[in-house]
Amino acid sequence: MTTDPFSTVSSELPRDQWGRPLITPPEGGEPVAYQRVTTFVGALEDTYHLNLWSQRMVVLGMAARRDLQLAALAISDPNDRYAKRNLNDIAKQAKDAAAGSAKATIGTALHSYTERIDKGEPLGNVPEEYVPDLNAYRAITEGLESVGIEGFCVNDGLRVGGSYDRIYRFTQEFLAAYEARHGKRLMTPDGDLVEPGDALIGDVKTGNIDLGMGKICMQLGTYANSEDYDHTVGRRTPLLGNPSREWGVVVHLPAGAGAARLVWADIASGWTVASTLARGVHDWRKRKDLAHDFASLTVTKAPEASLVDLIRAAPSYDALVALYAQNASSWTPGLTALASTRKKELGAA
After folding, report:
1. Confidence (pLDDT) at 212
2. For domain 22-45+104-286, which architecture applies?
3. Which of 122, 161, 301, 346 could pair covalently with 34 via S-S, beta carbons 3.0-4.6 A apart?
4. Closest of 265, 216, 259, 230 to residue 245, by C-alpha
5. Residue 262 to residues 57, 310, 319: CA-CA distances in angstroms?
6. How far is the CA of 68 from the CAs of 26, 54, 80, 99, 191, in angstroms?
7. What are the boundaries of each domain within the chain?
């Protein structure tokens, strides 16, 4: 029996060799590569402190791993392209050795558990030390309805695409519990009353968010101004729940703390920056018309004189003797004959 190659469509979003999502244009046709939202807004991210942290991890990892020290010392030319690749790998291993990737791994796992919670799926085995984290997530999000989980969306104007963590919708239960606990109704930072049914783009973060809120707001703002995308048919639809384009929410769940908090994210400001400054940075980087030659010159290096040429041009007998002393290890009978001829030309006795 022959399998129909058109009977099924992969559930995996197609991507190019650089991991960029391949998106069918709104007008149809062949899929084209869109930039990932995280990469797009990352053009404006301040990575100074992150880079310092990475350097510290590499130093600690190298100090702990004698094998990596030996591997680095064995590289004779660090500018060689293969050596650069090896050094990059050594640096990565050193960073990992200093637990540089441990927090990210833990964060990814907790993120997956929160997704199961919101889908109503069993968690399976959870290490005891992380049970308080998940209980905190349950408690802080109780009454928030997850109408969208890990949905993929695109913004065709910016030609970007990415997956949002959540679209949360406020329920009467959540708002009543908030009012009972805080003695006031829930309002956005700019004073608007939150009503049942209002929805927000949400992000679950397990690490420090203090230095990254700018990027988070740009990212969530871009998602809020995008459309859900179904790659199997290339169809775009409005985001589930029609989330706010003014405010988003970050569920901050620091790994191992057993605590959680909800943080308003100013995604209106984030969108303004992403759609103007970030777009401007990427457009600037694509410019190919910034340099213009108006003069050029190529100078070739004169070839060095050979020993034969130096003997023939020796200005004196002493110069011949000096040439012999400098090249005694490679001197040949032929050079001796040539030097003898030159000696006679110089009239040396």
Report:
1. 87
2. Alpha-Beta Complex (3.90)
3. 161
4. 265
5. 30, 83, 87
6. 50, 17, 18, 15, 56
7. 22-45+104-286, 307-346
Nearest to 40 by CA among 189, 209, 155: 155
**pLDDT tens sequence across 160-195:** 999 999 999 999 999 999 999 999 999 999 999 999
Q: Are strands 247-252 and 261-266 parallel, antiparallel or unpaired?
A: antiparallel
Geometric angle at alpha carbon 76, from 71 and 81, rounded to 5°? 90
Longest C-alpha distance within the chain, in Å?
Answer: 118
214 near 45, Cβ under 8 Å?
yes
Integer angstrom CA distances of residue 94 from 47, 52, 70, 101: 20, 15, 12, 10
Query: First and final CA of the chain: distance in angstroms?
Result: 102
What pLDDT is stored for residue 190 in this prediction?
Answer: 94
Write the DSSP string, 89-140: HHHHHHHHHTTTTHHHHHHHHHHHHHHHHHHT-------GGGHHHHHHHHHH
Helix (H) or strand (E) holding 203: strand 199-205
pLDDT value, residue 2: 47
pLDDT at res. 36: 94
User: Which residues in the chain land under pLDDT 50?
Assistant: 1-3, 5-8
Enter the tokens of residue 215: 């990027």
Span 314-329, pLDDT tens digits: 999 999 999 999 998 8
